[in-house]
Design a protein that fits this description.
Blueprint lengths: L13 H5 L4 E7 L3 H9 L9 E7 L9 H9 L3 H7 L8 E7 L4 E7 L6 H6 L8 E7 L8 H4 L2 H9 L1 E10 L11 E3 L5 E3 L7 H14 L2 E4 L4 E3 L4 H17 L50 E4 L3 H12 L4 E4 L15 E3 L9 H22 L6 E2 L3 E3 L4 H13 L8 E3 L1 H8 L7 E4 L3 E3 L1 H15 L2 E4 L2 E9 L2 E8 L9 E6 L1 E4 L17 E11 L10 E4 L1 E3 L6 E5 L3 E2 L8 H14 L16 E8 L6 E6 L1 H13 L6 H7 L4 E9 L5 H16 L8 H7 L3 H7 L6
Helix pairs in contact: 3-4, 7-8, 7-9, 10-14, 10-18, 11-18
Bound molecules: flavin-adenine dinucleotide (FAD).
EC number: 2.1.1.61
Protein name: FAD-dependent 5-carboxymethylaminomethyl-2-thiouridine(34) oxidoreductase MnmC
Organism: Shewanella intestini
Length: 718
């Protein structure tokens, strides 16, 4: 140890790590995530023009109300560290992704609120393509208090599974900008557990070296300026076996095969991940305007134009991808994403199961993304004024009470409020208790979508092809050929070849299942009419979004949004006077003892109608599009076999047929603002071979083939 108590072993220099690569994926295992991140961020200013992805895993938890997090905000010397500390972090399960500096720096914080360990967190991560190149263990993991938890072979094997063959491990010191070591951890609000460098047990450094040897890592010992090499062929074979084991567990769920130049893949595609089942080219008799095909075309095509497409474009743009967006309208965000004010808040469930965890992760990511776009100067009308939710009949109240009382929700996710508190928060007499989401509020989805597209355009070559309806797509010679018609006010032109692309994403909202390849997606359209009403009477005072049977937003430019109707399989999108009245009545029925609902006046007939696509399990759909015809054909083949009872095993062990390089992104129901940005980020990461913010469990739950696989894996017919 030196005079300041900083362990000289730990001086890892980021610039050194970067000298051969432009994208560095780095893992930090630490007991004090905040101090570890701050140490890294103090160095990050050096990495111009390079991208870095930092995953932080810790058994201890942080949230943005953590005093140390606030300490960084006040004391940071670098702009980057300040922008990191401005992110909202909550004590929730799973990965919280922060995308800083236009995606140049990605930080994933993994934590769990239950008894799961760092090993459990690692086990859910999958890195089929780009792998971790470096792991840092902060010196507090080597203290006598913590070492039993972190210095475990199981953890090192998981890290090894996720790592490139030549990945290294080294120790990270954590210091503040002033040079004072602050390895302090606020364990609870009133106890402080201090872990100092002096607590690093020398024997634990030897143990760490041994673990590295046992799992095939090179250990960087900065004291002797030495990288410890050893012949690790056996350990590398073991890593490979672990990877295969994980892939086998989810074999039925096709993982995207990124299109990336071999040089960008870090010694990572040693094993085949999918049965490269090239699909047959369907017979097609379209009137195609033949174009000369450029076999090197590497643009990604998106069919859409709403919030999902815009955030996918932004996430791909941050990764330097070229994009073509085909949109049937004459501008961005003319479909479901066209509303003036949409509520943003998480969907919680009493068991805080995967759905609830997904929505918390997604909601926080949306907040980060919106904040980032605002900081970049995009005009997005919004007010993070909080959302108050309450029941609207005995059944819904019972359900909400169950959610409120079943868990100890982090206070920046949701807090229980009584009637008086609710009145104070909303500034109107709701006279009911319920749930309050302090980071929620409303945002204009139309402007948000526009902003995401503009930001994407500032980062990459993004071609917007408006007034163009995509009618059909075909996979020919490893390219997706997009056919469609240009729409003009006079007529619909003949279908022609519009372009060909290495990867194709269908994010066309209500039309997502209108192509032959996507027709079987089990999503149901629900019409919604949201009313725009003038602010008057007590409505003027409303200071939070209210959610009951529908939602009501605080005024913006003298108008509120109230609604929306929810009608299955809509016949048309015409304005409905009945739905307009129902929007008012639903609010009045939700708050029978209040006066302010009488101020809701829908007579101006100002409204907007859209369609949401809803899945039965409320998860969006994201990932490689299943080839349902082939799934069905294989199922019929299976049925003929004598060992038909073993069919579930067959489906467990074989990759379900799917279309190469064809992805879907949709089914966001009534929560697109809270969920689309994270799901789009996840898809962009998967398509480019990068680490997804969604673990394998959630990727499987969002997979477009889940509806069929659930049956097949149980041995049932589809
Ligand atoms: C009335 C209403 C109220 C809502 N309120 C909220 C709320 O408060 N909070 C919230 O989070 N969410 C809310 N939602 C849901 C949210 O708006 C949606 O989840 C989200 O907008 C879906 O985005 P998207 O990009 O998937 O679809 P869309 O925004 O519908 O975008 C699809 C795009 O695809 C284009 N397209 C379709 N077919 C083709 C084709 N063949 N060729 C070319 N282009 C095509 C369309 O032009 C459109 O631009 C509401 C929805 C409605 C309808």
């Amino acid at each position: 140890m030196n005079a300041k108590g900083v362990n000289p072993l730990s001086r890892i220099n980021l610039a050194d790590l970067f000298h051969t690569q432009s994208y560095l994926q780095l893992g930090i295992i630490t007991h004090n995530p905040i101090a570890a991140l701050q140490s890294m961020f103090n160095q990050l200013e050096q990495i111009n023009q390079k991208r870095i992805h930092i995953s932080v895993l810790s058994k201890s938890k942080i949230s943005s109300i953590d005093p140390l997090w606030q300490h960084i905000a006040q004391s940071s010397v670098t702009e980057l560290a300040t922008s990191l500390s401005q992110q909202h972090v909550a004590n929730i399960n799973g990965c919280q992704r922060m995308s800083l500096n236009n995606g140049q720096i990605t930080v994933d914080i993994y934590q769990y609120t239950d008894n799961r360990t760092v090993n459990d967190m690692l086990a859910d991560i999958i890195t089929p393509h780009i792998r971790f190149q470096h792991w840092l263990l902060s010196c507090d993991t080597l203290s006598s208090v913590n070492s039993d938890h972190y210095l475990q072979q199981a953890i090192f094997w998981q890290c090894a599974r996720l790592s490139a063959d030549h990945a290294c491990v080294s120790i990270l010191a954590m210091d503040t900008p002033s040079g004072v070591v602050t390895h302090q951890r606020v364990a609870t609000s009133d106890t402080i557990e201090a872990v100092h460098d002096q607590d690093v047990v020398p024997a634990n450094i030897s143990k760490l070296q041994l673990l590295c040897r046992q799992t095939g890592f090179r250990f960087i010992d900065e004291l002797s300026n030495d990288i410890k090499h050893h012949d690790n062929a056996i350990e590398l074979a073991e890593r490979q076996a672990l990877r295969q084991q994980q892939l086998d567990t989810y074999a039925y769920n096709p993982l995207p095969q990124p299109n990336m130049p071999p040089s960008s893949v870090n010694n990572s595609v040693e094993e085949p991940l999918t049965m490269a089942n090239r699909q047959s080219i369907p017979n097609h008799t379209l009137n195609t305007a033949q174009k000369k095909i450029d076999p090197n075309s590497d643009t990604i095509a998106i069919v859409g134009g709403g919030i999902a497409s815009a955030f996918l474009a932004l996430s791909l743009a941050k990764r330097g991808k070229k994009i073509t967006l085909y949109c049937q309208d004459d501008a961005i965000a003319q479909g479901a994403s066209a509303n003036k004010q949409g509520a943003i808040y998480p969907l919680l469930t009493p068991d805080n199961g995967p759905l609830s965890q997904f929505f918390q992760q997604a909601y926080l990511f949306s907040r980060h993304q919106i904040d980032a776009l605002l900081n970049q100067g995009h005009p997005i009308s919004h007010d993070f004024c909080g959302v108050f939710q309450t029941g609207f009949d005995p059944r819904s109240q019972q359900r909400l009470d169950k959610i409120i009382n079943a868990q100890q929700w982090p206070s920046n996710i949701a807090v229980k409020v009584n009637a008086q508190q609710a009145n104070e928060l909303t500034q109107v007499d709701v006279n009911k208790g319920g749930f309050y989401y302090p980071l929620g509020g409303w945002v204009c989805p139309y402007e948000l979508t526009q902003a995401a597209i503009k930001q994407a355009m500032s980062l990459t070559q993004l071609e917007l092809v408006f007034n163009t309806h995509v009618d059909d797509v075909q996979y020919i010679d490893n390219q997706w050929h997009v056919y469609g018609s240009h729409l003009s006010s006079e007529r619909k032109n003949a279908t022609q070849l519009l372009g060909h692309h290495s990867q194709l994403v269908i994010a066309s909202g209500a039309n997502i299942n209108q192509l032959s390849q996507t027709a079987a997606l089990p999503l149901t359209p629900f019409r919604g009419q949201v009313s725009h009403i003038p602010t008057q009477g007590q409505l003027n005072q409303l200071s939070s979004v209210i959610c009951a049977n529908g939602y009501l937003t605080p005024q913006h430019e003298h108008s509120h949004c109230v609604g929306a109707s929810y009608i299955k399989h809509p016949q048309d999108l015409a304005f409905s006077e009945l739905e307009q009245q129902q929007n008012q009545q639903k609010m009045a029925q939700s708050f029978p003892d209040s006066h302010w609902p009488k101020d809701i006046d829908t007579h101006d007939n100002q409204a907007r109608v859209g369609v949401r696509m809803v899945s039965r399990d409320h998860f969006p759909v994201m990932g490689a599009m299943a080839n349902v015809a082939q799934i069905q054909a294989r199922f019929e083949q299976q049925r003929q076999l004598p060992q038909w009872q073993q069919s579930p095993k067959y489906w467990q062990q074989n990759i379900a047929p799917h279309y190469q390089q064809l992805y879907v992104l949709g089914g966001f129901g009534s929560r697109g603002i809270s969920s689309a940005p994270l799901v789009a980020e996840s898809l962009a990461a998967m398509m480019t071979g990068e680490l997804s913010p969604l673990g394998m469990t959630l990727q499987t739950l969002l997979s477009p083939n889940r509806m069929w696989m659930r049956k097949l894996l149980k041995g049932k017919a589809i």
